[in-house]
Design a protein that fits this description.
The chain crosses the membrane at residues 9-30, 42-66, 87-107, 138-159, 166-186, 220-242. One of its GO terms (cellular component) is plasma membrane. This protein is mostly helical. Helix content is 71%, strand content 0%. It has one domain: Glycerol uptake facilitator protein, CATH 1.20.1080. The longest helix is centred in the first third of the chain and has 27 residues, at 5-31. The two termini are 22 Å apart.
Protein backbone atom coordinates (compact mmCIF):
# COMPACT_ATOMS: atom_id res chain seq x y z
CA UNK A 1 0.00 0.00 0.00
CA UNK A 2 1.30 3.44 -0.97
CA UNK A 3 0.50 6.19 1.51
CA UNK A 4 0.04 9.85 0.66
CA UNK A 5 2.95 12.22 1.18
CA UNK A 6 1.05 13.92 4.00
CA UNK A 7 0.67 10.60 5.83
CA UNK A 8 4.35 9.82 5.33
CA UNK A 9 5.32 13.22 6.72
CA UNK A 10 3.01 12.73 9.69
CA UNK A 11 4.75 9.42 10.36
CA UNK A 12 8.18 11.06 10.19
CA UNK A 13 7.04 13.87 12.50
CA UNK A 14 5.51 11.58 15.12
CA UNK A 15 8.27 9.01 14.82
CA UNK A 16 11.03 11.56 15.40
CA UNK A 17 9.08 13.03 18.32
CA UNK A 18 8.84 9.55 19.87
CA UNK A 19 12.59 9.12 19.40
CA UNK A 20 13.23 12.34 21.31
CA UNK A 21 10.78 11.53 24.10
CA UNK A 22 12.28 8.11 24.74
CA UNK A 23 15.92 9.09 24.12
CA UNK A 24 16.33 12.53 25.65
CA UNK A 25 13.64 11.67 28.17
CA UNK A 26 15.93 8.89 29.41
CA UNK A 27 18.82 11.36 29.64
CA UNK A 28 16.65 13.79 31.61
CA UNK A 29 15.59 11.00 33.96
CA UNK A 30 19.23 10.17 34.71
CA UNK A 31 20.81 13.62 34.73
CA UNK A 32 18.27 15.99 36.28
CA UNK A 33 18.05 16.52 40.01
CA UNK A 34 15.49 14.70 42.17
CA UNK A 35 14.01 12.48 39.46
CA UNK A 36 13.12 8.89 40.33
CA UNK A 37 15.85 7.74 37.94
CA UNK A 38 18.56 10.20 38.97
CA UNK A 39 22.02 8.66 38.50
CA UNK A 40 20.46 5.46 37.11
CA UNK A 41 23.38 5.22 34.70
CA UNK A 42 24.33 4.89 31.07
CA UNK A 43 22.43 1.65 30.45
CA UNK A 44 19.17 3.47 31.18
CA UNK A 45 20.05 6.08 28.56
CA UNK A 46 21.12 3.46 26.01
CA UNK A 47 17.85 1.58 26.47
CA UNK A 48 15.89 4.80 26.03
CA UNK A 49 17.50 5.50 22.68
CA UNK A 50 17.25 1.88 21.56
CA UNK A 51 13.53 1.77 22.27
CA UNK A 52 13.20 5.30 20.88
CA UNK A 53 14.29 3.99 17.50
CA UNK A 54 12.72 0.54 17.73
CA UNK A 55 9.17 1.72 18.36
CA UNK A 56 8.93 4.30 15.51
CA UNK A 57 10.38 1.76 13.07
CA UNK A 58 7.78 -0.76 14.18
CA UNK A 59 5.00 1.86 14.11
CA UNK A 60 5.81 3.64 10.86
CA UNK A 61 8.30 1.58 8.87
CA UNK A 62 5.53 0.41 6.59
CA UNK A 63 4.22 3.97 6.17
CA UNK A 64 7.21 6.24 5.54
CA UNK A 65 10.19 3.96 5.96
CA UNK A 66 10.64 5.50 9.42
CA UNK A 67 13.82 7.35 8.54
CA UNK A 68 13.32 9.66 11.57
CA UNK A 69 16.78 11.00 10.75
CA UNK A 70 17.88 13.47 8.03
CA UNK A 71 21.15 11.55 7.69
CA UNK A 72 19.22 8.43 6.67
CA UNK A 73 17.02 10.38 4.25
CA UNK A 74 19.96 12.11 2.56
CA UNK A 75 22.05 8.93 2.49
CA UNK A 76 19.32 7.02 0.67
CA UNK A 77 18.67 9.89 -1.74
CA UNK A 78 22.35 10.25 -2.65
CA UNK A 79 22.57 6.51 -3.28
CA UNK A 80 19.42 6.38 -5.44
CA UNK A 81 17.22 4.67 -2.86
CA UNK A 82 14.86 7.57 -2.13
CA UNK A 83 13.25 10.24 -4.37
CA UNK A 84 14.90 13.65 -4.16
CA UNK A 85 11.57 15.48 -4.37
CA UNK A 86 10.63 14.07 -0.94
CA UNK A 87 13.93 14.84 0.80
CA UNK A 88 13.15 18.39 1.93
CA UNK A 89 9.61 17.57 3.15
CA UNK A 90 10.94 14.56 5.09
CA UNK A 91 13.71 16.59 6.72
CA UNK A 92 11.28 19.36 7.66
CA UNK A 93 8.96 16.82 9.28
CA UNK A 94 11.87 15.26 11.14
CA UNK A 95 13.28 18.50 12.56
CA UNK A 96 9.83 19.68 13.61
CA UNK A 97 9.16 16.32 15.22
CA UNK A 98 12.46 16.54 17.09
CA UNK A 99 11.50 19.99 18.39
CA UNK A 100 8.07 18.75 19.48
CA UNK A 101 9.50 15.71 21.24
CA UNK A 102 12.12 17.76 23.05
CA UNK A 103 9.50 20.27 24.14
CA UNK A 104 7.47 17.43 25.63
CA UNK A 105 10.54 16.26 27.55
CA UNK A 106 11.06 19.80 28.86
CA UNK A 107 7.43 20.11 29.97
CA UNK A 108 7.43 16.72 31.69
CA UNK A 109 10.66 17.46 33.56
CA UNK A 110 10.03 21.16 34.13
CA UNK A 111 10.35 21.12 37.96
CA UNK A 112 13.59 19.16 37.71
CA UNK A 113 15.09 21.58 35.21
CA UNK A 114 14.46 24.36 37.71
CA UNK A 115 16.18 22.41 40.51
CA UNK A 116 19.22 21.24 38.52
CA UNK A 117 22.27 23.47 38.89
CA UNK A 118 24.67 21.62 36.60
CA UNK A 119 24.80 23.33 33.19
CA UNK A 120 26.46 20.23 31.70
CA UNK A 121 23.68 17.94 32.92
CA UNK A 122 21.02 20.27 31.53
CA UNK A 123 22.72 20.57 28.14
CA UNK A 124 23.09 16.78 27.94
CA UNK A 125 19.31 16.40 28.03
CA UNK A 126 19.09 18.50 24.86
CA UNK A 127 22.09 17.82 22.64
CA UNK A 128 25.50 16.19 22.35
CA UNK A 129 28.94 17.37 23.45
CA UNK A 130 32.40 15.85 23.27
CA UNK A 131 33.62 14.41 26.56
CA UNK A 132 37.23 15.06 25.57
CA UNK A 133 36.52 18.61 24.36
CA UNK A 134 38.10 18.10 20.93
CA UNK A 135 36.28 18.69 17.68
CA UNK A 136 38.29 15.99 15.91
CA UNK A 137 37.17 13.32 18.38
CA UNK A 138 33.61 14.66 18.21
CA UNK A 139 33.56 14.41 14.40
CA UNK A 140 35.14 10.97 14.21
CA UNK A 141 32.72 9.41 16.68
CA UNK A 142 29.60 10.92 15.12
CA UNK A 143 30.82 9.90 11.64
CA UNK A 144 31.69 6.31 12.54
CA UNK A 145 28.61 5.80 14.71
CA UNK A 146 26.20 6.99 12.03
CA UNK A 147 27.96 4.97 9.33
CA UNK A 148 27.47 1.82 11.40
CA UNK A 149 23.87 2.75 12.23
CA UNK A 150 22.86 3.31 8.60
CA UNK A 151 24.72 0.23 7.34
CA UNK A 152 23.23 -1.95 10.06
CA UNK A 153 19.70 -0.60 9.66
CA UNK A 154 19.71 -1.10 5.89
CA UNK A 155 21.10 -4.61 6.22
CA UNK A 156 18.27 -5.45 8.60
CA UNK A 157 15.42 -3.74 6.79
CA UNK A 158 16.36 -4.05 3.10
CA UNK A 159 17.78 -7.56 2.79
CA UNK A 160 15.48 -10.52 2.15
CA UNK A 161 15.15 -11.70 5.75
CA UNK A 162 14.18 -8.23 6.92
CA UNK A 163 11.63 -7.72 4.17
CA UNK A 164 10.10 -11.09 5.06
CA UNK A 165 9.90 -10.32 8.78
CA UNK A 166 9.87 -6.56 9.13
CA UNK A 167 8.90 -6.59 12.79
CA UNK A 168 11.89 -8.72 13.74
CA UNK A 169 14.19 -6.52 11.65
CA UNK A 170 12.83 -3.41 13.36
CA UNK A 171 13.56 -4.87 16.78
CA UNK A 172 17.12 -5.64 15.72
CA UNK A 173 17.56 -2.03 14.55
CA UNK A 174 16.60 -0.91 18.04
CA UNK A 175 19.24 -3.21 19.49
CA UNK A 176 21.81 -1.77 17.06
CA UNK A 177 21.12 1.69 18.49
CA UNK A 178 21.21 0.34 22.05
CA UNK A 179 24.56 -1.32 21.31
CA UNK A 180 26.01 1.75 19.64
CA UNK A 181 25.12 3.97 22.58
CA UNK A 182 26.72 1.46 24.94
CA UNK A 183 29.86 0.95 22.87
CA UNK A 184 30.56 4.22 21.05
CA UNK A 185 28.35 6.61 22.98
CA UNK A 186 30.85 7.57 25.66
CA UNK A 187 32.80 10.21 23.72
CA UNK A 188 29.87 12.30 22.45
CA UNK A 189 26.48 11.26 23.72
CA UNK A 190 25.90 10.24 20.87
CA UNK A 191 23.76 12.08 18.31
CA UNK A 192 23.89 10.05 15.07
CA UNK A 193 21.05 12.24 13.84
CA UNK A 194 21.18 15.94 12.84
CA UNK A 195 17.55 16.55 13.87
CA UNK A 196 18.12 14.98 17.28
CA UNK A 197 20.85 17.53 18.03
CA UNK A 198 20.06 20.72 16.13
CA UNK A 199 16.47 21.41 17.18
CA UNK A 200 16.92 20.50 20.85
CA UNK A 201 20.02 22.72 20.93
CA UNK A 202 17.90 25.56 19.58
CA UNK A 203 15.30 24.96 22.30
CA UNK A 204 18.07 24.93 24.89
CA UNK A 205 19.05 28.36 23.63
CA UNK A 206 15.58 29.92 23.85
CA UNK A 207 13.89 28.18 26.81
CA UNK A 208 14.07 29.97 30.18
CA UNK A 209 16.03 27.36 32.14
CA UNK A 210 17.98 28.48 35.23
CA UNK A 211 21.68 27.50 35.27
CA UNK A 212 21.55 26.23 31.69
CA UNK A 213 24.83 27.75 30.52
CA UNK A 214 26.00 27.92 26.92
CA UNK A 215 24.34 26.07 24.04
CA UNK A 216 27.81 25.65 22.48
CA UNK A 217 26.93 26.74 18.96
CA UNK A 218 30.60 26.85 17.98
CA UNK A 219 30.56 23.05 17.70
CA UNK A 220 26.93 22.53 16.65
CA UNK A 221 27.90 21.89 13.01
CA UNK A 222 29.66 18.63 13.94
CA UNK A 223 26.62 16.52 14.97
CA UNK A 224 24.93 17.76 11.79
CA UNK A 225 27.69 17.33 9.19
CA UNK A 226 29.40 14.21 10.57
CA UNK A 227 26.22 12.06 10.70
CA UNK A 228 25.24 13.13 7.19
CA UNK A 229 28.63 12.13 5.76
CA UNK A 230 28.80 8.96 7.84
CA UNK A 231 25.30 7.99 6.77
CA UNK A 232 26.19 8.44 3.11
CA UNK A 233 29.19 6.15 3.51
CA UNK A 234 27.13 3.53 5.35
CA UNK A 235 24.48 3.54 2.64
CA UNK A 236 27.12 3.35 -0.10
CA UNK A 237 28.74 0.36 1.59
CA UNK A 238 25.37 -1.36 1.78
CA UNK A 239 24.72 -0.79 -1.91
CA UNK A 240 28.19 -1.92 -2.97
CA UNK A 241 28.52 -4.94 -0.71
CA UNK A 242 25.08 -6.30 0.12
CA UNK A 243 22.23 -4.85 -1.97
CA UNK A 244 20.62 -7.33 -4.33
Amino acid sequence: MEYSLFTKLAAEFVGTAVLMIFGNGAVANVELKNTKGHNAGWINIAMGYGFGVMFPVLMFGGVSGAHINPAMTLAQAVNGMFPWNQVLPYICAQVLGAAAGQLIVYICYYPHYKETESAEAILGTFCTTDAYATRRNYFINEFVGTMLLVLGALCCLELQWGRTNYAAASIVVGFIVWGLVCSLGGPTGPGLNPARDLMPRLLHQILPIPHKGSSRWNEAWIPVVAPILGGMLGCWLFNVLFAI
